[in-house]
TrEMBL record:
<dbReference type="InterPro" id="IPR000182">
    <property type="entry name" value="GNAT_dom"/>
</dbReference>
<dbReference type="InterPro" id="IPR050832">
    <property type="entry name" value="Bact_Acetyltransf"/>
</dbReference>
<keyword id="KW-0808">Transferase</keyword>
<dbReference type="InterPro" id="IPR016181">
    <property type="entry name" value="Acyl_CoA_acyltransferase"/>
</dbReference>
<dbReference type="Pfam" id="PF13673">
    <property type="entry name" value="Acetyltransf_10"/>
</dbReference>
<keyword id="KW-0012">Acyltransferase</keyword>
<feature type="domain" description="N-acetyltransferase">
    <location>
        <begin position="21"/>
        <end position="158"/>
    </location>
</feature>
<dbReference type="GO" id="GO:0016747">
    <property type="term" value="F:acyltransferase activity, transferring groups other than amino-acyl groups"/>
</dbReference>
<protein>
    <submittedName>
        <fullName>GNAT family N-acetyltransferase</fullName>
    </submittedName>
</protein>
Length: 161
């Protein structure tokens, strides 16, 4: 992991940059998933609008974090208090530098502080190998969700660190 990665809780002031990170990650980094279908891309991005992000930041049952690499915002993640990790997006030009791993480690740590013994997520094809490297395993058969391949996954979290 790059030593200059810094993960911090997102704030309302980060709403715009979070939106831009998510959109770029979806448009460029997830092309395998949406196959550049403009309807799939627009629907996916619409589910993560600035209005949605503002509501997420105001919800105490959600935790959004943001990754800074060399003082630039390059990634964002979100977890719910029930153990669900609902997003992890990294700017494509910053892939494979430890940003996603750092975001996920921070989200899992937040879940542990809330007593979660398990983390669950739904992976796209783009993210599947990444999540497997982090210890996530299939929890159900693959399915089609919003016109894209999805794989439910889970990971047991260490209750004592």
């Amino acid at each position: 992991m790059d030593a200059s990665i810094y993960i911090c809780p997102a704030t309302a002031a980060d709403t715009g940059i979070i939106s831009r990170i998510v959109e770029r990650s979806i448009r460029v980094g997830c092309a395998l998933d949406h196959r550049n279908d403009p309807h799939l891309v627009d629907a996916w991005i619409r589910q993560q609008s600035t209005e949605h992000i503002s509501a997420w930041l105001a919800d105490p049952q959600r935790y959004l974090n943001i990754a800074l690499l060399q003082d630039r915002p390059v990634g964002v993640g979100m977890a719910l208090a029930n153990g669900d990790i609902t997003l992890c997006h990294v700017q494509p030009e910053w892939f494979r530098r430890g940003v996603g791993r750092a975001l996920m480690t921070d989200l899992e740590g937040w879940l542990l502080t809330r007593g979660s013994a398990r983390s669950v997520l739904t992976s796209t094809r783009t993210g599947e190998a990444f999540y497997r490297r982090l210890g996530y395993r299939e929890s159900a058969p693959p399915l089609i969700r919003h016109g894209m391949h999805s794989l439910p996954m889970h990971k047991s979290l260490p209750l004592s660190a």
